[in-house]
Amino acid sequence: MAEEMVQTKNEELHDPIVETAGYDETESIVGIWGHPLHAMSVAFPVALTFCTFGADALYWWSAELFWARAAIWAAGTAFLFGLAAGATGTAELLMVPGIRIRAPAWSHFVIAVLLLSILGANWGYRLQGYEAAVLPYGILISGFSVLVVMVTGWHGGKLVFDYRLGTSKGS
Predict the structure, then answer these.
(1) pTM to 2 decimal places
(2) pLDDT greater at residue 60 or residue 16
(3) Is the pLDDT of residue 171 over 60?
(4) Are 43 and 81 a contacting pair, CB within 8 Å?
(5) Angle of helix 65-95 versus helix 103-126 axis, rounded to 10
(6) Average pLDDT, integer, range 90-107
(7) In CA terms, which of 11, 35, 138, 145 is 20 to 30 Å from 43?
């Protein structure tokens, strides 16, 4: 007969990851004067992703060429600033042991790479003809990228505010 594994009230759960060397080392090491670069740089691709979708919607509504041109600039800068934010986040992930050991940090990394792929595709799609690219696929890609940036941002915020990953202890 197989013995049943039953936890009693006196037994405590044992997490071997907590005992890993460096588990408590979660402070940002990629920063300027104690300010984490990743946390500072993610605001730009997030805002520009929303701007791209907004410009697409305004082009759809008004048919003004200005909004299609604004959308290609917003899409391109969202992608380029996203690469910069991704570089700082990847450096934190790989160099800080307390961040690297946690599975949620890797989940955030995978979702962020998906977002970068979508942002790059959105910009690349528009390079052949930004006005014709807006409807219907440009606005659909922009809308999807807004959804993915919200998930990525929520997950990143959870890492910072709940787990205190990638923050600075201050002086």
Answers:
(1) 0.86
(2) 60
(3) no
(4) no
(5) 150
(6) 94
(7) 138
φ/ψ of 36, rounded to 5, equals -65, 125
**C-alpha 94: how far from chain center:** 16
Task: Provide the total of helices (H) and of strands (E) in the chain, helices listed first.
Answer: 7, 2
How far is the C-alpha of 21 from the C-alpha of 94, rounded, in Å? 15
Dist. CA 157–CA 36, nearest whole Å: 14
Q: Please name the residue ranges forming H helices in 64-138.
A: 65-95, 97-100, 103-126, 130-133
Mean pLDDT, rounded, for 65-85:
98
| Mean pLDDT confidence for 102-110 | 95
Residue 131 identity (one-letter amino acid): E
* Cβ pair 115, 82 in contact under 8 A: yes
Contacts for 34 with CB less than 8 Å, ≥ 6 apart? 168, 170, 171
Tokens 């807004």 correspond to 146
pLDDT of residue 26: 85
Res. 100: pLDDT tops 90: yes
What is the distance between the alpha carbons of residues 74 and 26, in angstroms, rounded to a whole number?
33
Tokens of 25: 């080392």
Scan for tokens 């759809």, then name that residue.
60
**Residue 64 scores a pLDDT above 90:** yes
